[in-house]
Amino acid sequence: MTDPVDQARRLVAERFPDALAAVLAGSTVTGRATASSDLDLAVLLPDGGGTYRETLRFEGRVAELFVHTEAGLDGVFAFDAASRRAVMQSMYAGGLLLFDTDGSGARARARAEADLRQGPPELAADAVEARRYALTAALDDLVDTRERIEGLAVGGDVLATAADLLCDHRRSWIGTGKWLPRQLVASDPELGVALLDGHLRLCEGGDPAPLAAAAGRVLDLVGGPLEAGYRKSWD
Question: Residue 20 above 90 pLDDT?
Answer without folding.
Answer: yes
